[in-house]
Amino acid sequence: MEAVAHAIAKPANENAPAVRLALYITDPEVVHELKEYDEGQERDAFAKHALRIGVLASRHASGALDAQSIQREGERMLGAVREALSAHTSQTASSIARLLGAYLDPATGSLPQRLEQLTKRDGEIELLLARHLDGDGSTIAQTLARQVGQESALFKLLSPTQADGLVTTLSRAIDDALRMQREEVLREFSRDRPESALSRLIADVSTANGALRAELAGDIAAVTGALSLENEQAPLARFVARVERAQRSILDQFSLDCEGSAICRLAATLDDTRTTMKQSLTLDNPASPLSLLRKELMDAVAVFSDSNSRFQSDMRTTLETFRVRREEAARSSLHGHSFEYAAGELLQLEAQHGGDVCERLSGTPGREGRKTGDYVLTLGPESAAPGAKIVVECKAERGYTEAQAFDELSLARKNREAQVGVFVVARESAKEGFATFRRVGPDVLVIWDADDPGTDVYVKAAVSIARALVVEQHRTSDRSEADVREVEQSIRAIERLVTTVDTIAHDARNIVKKGTKIGKAAEGVKERLVDEMERLKGVVAGMQGQQGLA
């Protein structure tokens, strides 16, 4: 039987290569398979597919299957697998979502409903726990009653009223053990039994006591023999013999009858020493040490006395001059002005040295209409703060305090339009507690003695610090913190040095005041020296008299 297949279907892609075939199939198996499909498109598709498989099988059998065909087929198969997996994934996700919703949905899920049934009030869990744990009829209560209750075997075993209980059994066992132990102890302390511990102890003590008595008797006999004087070889006899020999030797050394004894040699040495001292301590011999010492002391006292007399004369003259000048200045109505003029001369010199201008404005009203501010120092054009002003107030009035000085300086700075102020007060005008040199903010206080040139350095130091403060205010914006700190440290150092110098000067004045006392003390020492020398002469004369009697 023959079958005819017409491959007349058009390809999906008209641009792809195509071949028209008209085949007559006579192979029984192929014909049988083709007749399984209806004639037309279905049979043509099956014939194409079978033809493709046959061509690929034939190519594979002949070794002509190329890589491109494998790649196309593999991609087609991967695409099919991918589509199948995608469809399966969607189906699986939908199935899992439906299944999880059926179990876990809060409203309709079986799991929340089951949990609600288990945990709600009077639920299954509560009923189960109540049945096993609640009340005397619960399972656990009944179990505990059977195991440890009054009717349990354990309770009966531990009951003290039970004859065969554990407590009664333990009591009988302990009583038996104690009774046996007590009887054993009594047997060990019984003297009726020779093998008891007490009998053996008494026997050992008696034996040891006898041996000890024998050894003690031997020791006493040995000590008696060692302390016996009749035995010349005994230690005590040898010691007594040595003591007697030492006693005889000492008596021989201190005997005056023996010329070679120590006491005789000592007496001879003392006689020689007495003779030498008499020759050395006599003032009649000009070459003796005592005479030479007396001569040097008298010369030194004479030199010291002359020097002290000249010093006292000079100091009296100088102090008298100072006293007269001060009394005249104090009596004069221009005492304050003379102090002010003297301070102005010093300030003028200091201004010239620093290239500044010193102007006396005492008695001239200032910006505030006051006359406060005696001198104004204006810094020169070559200074670090040209045109800056320092006001100086000079006071010789008595009873000035630091508070009054600072108040007056504050007014003077405003009145003279100055940045820094210096208050110079006379030493005799400063009240007790007034610091010799002190700086507070832009103001400087200083004590000055117009009659003591040594205090001029205080005023110069105050002016130097005032200049530094003016420069510091003028250039604060341009200077670093380190520079400001360095200026402050320098100012503090000057304050400490001025205080130290004033302390030294005060001590020097005290030394001058005590010069007279030192001179008087020297005269007293001189008189005492003469008295001691006379007393020494008397002692030496007495020694000579005793030597003559000897």
Quick summary:
This protein is α/β, with parallel strands linked by helices and 550 residues long. Helices cover 65% and strands 8% of the residues. Strand 5, helix 14 and strand 6 (420-426) form a beta-alpha-beta unit.
Care to describe what's here?
The protein has helices at 28-34, 41-62, 67-104, 110-119, 124-133, 139-148, 153-158, 166-188, 197-226, 235-253, 262-280, 289-331, 335-354, 402-416, 456-474, 481-513, 515-549, and strands spanning 3-7, 21-25, 357-360, 375-378, 389-395, 420-426, 437-440, 443-448. Mean pLDDT is 76; it is low at 1-7. It has 550 residues and is of the alpha/beta class. A hairpin with a 2-residue loop joins strand 7 (437-440) and strand 8. The strands form two sheets. It has a six-stranded mixed β-sheet, sandwiched between helices. 65% of the residues lie in helices and 8% in strands. The longest helix is centred in the middle third of the chain and has 43 residues, at 289-331. Helix 12 (289-331) packs antiparallel against helix 17 and helix 15 (456-474) packs antiparallel against helix 16. The protein is flat.
